[in-house]
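Let's study my pick:
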Amino acid sequence: MLEKKLEKMSENTFLESAEELRALTEHAPIAIVVYNIEKGKLIEANLHAVKAFGINKEKLLTVGLEKFYHESLQNGQSSEEIIQSQINQVLEGAFYVYEWNYLDVSGKHIPCEVRIVRLPIKNQKLVRVSFTDISDRKNAVEALNLLAESNVTDLDEFLQSCVQMLSKAYSARFAFVGLLLDANKTRVETRAVWAGNEILENFEYDLAGTPCADILDRSKKLISRDVVKLYPDDKMLADMSAESYFGSPLINSFGETIGLVSVLDVKPMKLMPWTASILATFCQRIALELESHQSKKKIESSEEELSAILHEMQDTFFRADKLGKVIRVSSSVEQLFGYLPNEILGIDLANLFVEPDGRDKLTRLIKENNGKIENYIAELKRKDGTTIWVSTNAHYYYDLAGKKIGIEGTTRDITNIKETEEQMRKLSMALEQSADVVMITDCSGIIEYVNQSFELATGYSKEEVLGEKPNIVKSGKQNEEFYTNLWQTISSGNVFSDVLINRRKDSTFYYEQKTITPLKDAEGNITHFVSTGKDITDRMHAQEKLHHMAHHDPLTELPNRTLFLERLKLALARARYHKRLIAVMFIDLDRFKTINDSLGHDTGDKLLKLIAQRLVGDIRDGDTVARLGGDEFAVLLDDIALEKDIASLAKKMLEALEPKFVIDEREFYITASIGVSNCPNDGVDSQTLLKHADIAMYRAKDLGKNNYQFYSTEMSAKAFERLTLESSLRSALELDEFVLHYQPQIDVNNKNVIGVEALIRWQHPDLGLVSPLEFIPFLEEIGQIVSVGEWVLRNACKQSVRWGDMFEKHSLRMSVNMSSRQFNDSNLVSKIRQIITDTGIDPRLLELEITESLLMRNTTSTIEAINTLSELGVRFAIDDFGTGYSSLSYLRRFPIDSLKIDRSFIRDVTIDSDDAAIATAIIVMGQSLKLDVIAEGVETEGQLEFLRSKHCQSSQGFLFCKPLPADELSNWLQQQFKIKK
């Protein structure tokens, strides 16, 4: 530049003539005049000066230098004195600079910078006075200050003021703010338009072929001239006669381009050092206000939320001197840092940074980036000691002489964005480390991403599958119709979910539970597909196993009832078509329950397996042996030619069971009762045939077991009687047909009565008194044993209290049998508590008799119930001890008080050494465990004497008294107690 060239010239270097001076100054872009100190007048003025001052050159050369001094500079001195003082300084080698407003030819005040410097021309004392138009710089500073101090109340007014300020800052004719209308960034709607000297109505326009389209990639466009030539397809530029264009994108806090700001003029616009910074500052503030306005609309129902969003979104303007001291801030600093504006003035920026060298790093980056920086991320400290993350746009600012005097910029709170980024980072890590198989494809099915679980599941690496299609793992195990349906589902925007059979890289197959979800953009167009899946190969194999288990007995591996009925239905269909016989055998093992109860379920299960093997070994190919449950089996005989063949096969079944079974060195002999029905004689559907075979089996039982019987209609009549009895039993409790009899328990040594046992009887209106042996199994079957058992316990407790009142000096223990099904009732303990409370019985006089099999189940609920009731004081006795399969560990584990020796061991105790040995062992075991031992079924003095000799404490039986109704036993007890008196 001319000014700098002349200033830098050495004092020893002179221009040879005025002609050389004129050549240097005539076409300079600023106004220049030359003043002859000795003559005291102007001797030269360039064209720009003539135009600027609106005076022809001849007249201008008659004007003195004092014309260019502003009155405010005189300070009481005359213009001549001031001129002489400054010229003396200039002659000594200095130069003088001041600001001055002059009137141009249109009468407009133009701010300028006046610079006086001595000219190095030989033998002459000349000074050059240059006038630099600084209106652009003034306008830019003014616009920036107005923007920083702007307090937005109305968005439209704010945007209109912004375009007006931008137009003034760049001395441009046009300025506008536009917002994108679609996600594809093809069309814009203006929100504020300044043209000439007024605000115009907003409009829409297409971006294709315009400079506005080129700035949407977040880059600025600063085109100082020839913009129409650069964009010949932009009709609007041509209509505006635009010569220059400045534009920058609007980017929201999420990093999304939402619009643009453009400034245009019909003449070239100057590219100044602050051109880009001013535009960036306006764009940042406009983007913020647009976002704030949008947020206000969304949450206008909540003033508190609105304040929070404004706090997060509002930028803070700051200015610091060259030492880093804050000298100016906008009022939003309180929202950002918690400081009032006057509190933060004078604070060193370095004190706000969390990093010790944070400020130094910022200033270094500004210097390295040509005096500006955008989106500088840093962590800062608030007044209360908390920290926030901010994004800062900053640049150097200068005095009127162009000297750098500090930095200024805007800062926004991005703490939430940083937290969101951290969340996204965590989500990305979760996706990568997810145990689920994840695949993402584009809308045409090309793989763009797979996670580590995909690599582990398929054996393919990411590099091998990226760019491929998912059919790289296609197995061919599913038909094309399956895949067509898959593609049609997701292409229509719906979620697809199913099990796929895929092939790994090593050619092995695996099952994948897959879900494919279409991803859509803002306009609803599918952009990607996200596939998530789990390798469920093990589960599918388990399902296959479960399917097998659902149709087979887990113990014997024989078909179960479900599979048996399915095969029976198929066989019936074939039989009707081919007109052949089929038969159903219902097999029930004889006395199996005795083995199971006495030796335990483990032995019983082993025996059932061996029996199943024998039954299967004696059937024909195509026939089916099934286990229906417990010790019940069924056989399907398919395609029978003659009815006599059925009898032959049934006989073979019985013969197959005749040889002994050996389990754990024990020998067993087992028999079975078989019932037979056939189609079409006994029924034409599966349920009927099975029911009739069951009826025939009961007939075989009645005839002494170990035989087979064919179904007949007479058998149905018998079965109907059993059904009638069962039906009557269902209403017996409601009709109050049950009664209790009581049998006393006697001290073996002194024959004192120590307690009674409550025994239920059924007073049938037609059949009379029915033994419990006949109806208790039915109660168990139909599930009424729980309600009947509760009735027995309540009434027994009531009777015990009555006897307590009658015989105050004699505490009689009341024993009540408990079914194992009652212990399946989760409310058992609460029910017994309530009965004790309602009846008033002393819990210590209540003894509950349970079976060995109940203890052997050893379930948590059983253990908790027994322990809880024992803590209440309730006693427990094991009934029929010796007939099951117990061990000392079970007896020691539970709070058992008594053992009851089964009557089957007492009956022949005086004549059978084995029974005597068993009874003796039980008594000794009870004594060693400090348990009371009660012998049941005592009917002779010899039996009593044996028990006394073995020190058995108690007994009960017909020798003393048979079970009696309560009133009869009351009389008997009264006689006993009177005798004692």
In short: The CA atoms of residues 733 and 788 lie 7 Å apart. The first strand starts at residue 31 and ends at 36. The radius of gyration is 55 Å. The chain has a mean pLDDT of 83.
